[in-house]
User: Fold this.
Amino acid sequence: MPAMQAESVPLTGVEADYVAPAARDTYFENEPNLIAPFDFDYDKIIDFTTTLRFAQIIFLPPCWCSVLCCSPCFVKKNVEWDTRSQHLALTIDGIRYVKEKRKMCWGLHCCDQGRESKTVPYDKITDCDVQEPAGTACCCCIPNVLSKVHVDTASSGVGEGGKLRHELEFYGLMDAHAFKHSVWAMKRRVAPSGAQVPMGGLAPPNQQDMQTTLLTEIRDELRLLNQKMEKK
Assistant:
């Protein structure tokens, strides 16, 4: 897995009402269609999630049986493996979210979780919003400190059990509002300030443009065929 740079990098230029932060995560550095990567606050996510998991083990009796498997001994490691495996970026094709291959459970090779990757095209996005942290997460003693970003498409909605299902959902993004504004900017086909590649000429053609081109070619072929028939 690509290494993280040691020092933090300040935000880069502002254009209109949004900004693309200069990210420290180098995971997407070889991505050919990269627009801008975004950083997760890994340390904050790990601290919060670890505390929450231990609280659940203590206060929820059904979780007590996990003690028999020594699961509490590996709680922090599991949280860290899962948290540091995730990476996020905007590409020309859409929002790209990746969870790299990672260890799970007791850290044995047989428990490894495979790589997961998902790209949500901009033209499919119907909503992208940020939920600020508020309230507590467990037993009124663990305050919520992580912002939540959700991305919806036409396929999002109420899933099984009446729970709202999002196309993408993640916690602890360092600059969630910058991500939100950049997504809407890309949906309008305006490259965020600080983007690593220009938008001009690199955006893939949409389906309507491709259909128009195809119909134009068919029309020209028919005209040429009619001309040949008239000459005969």
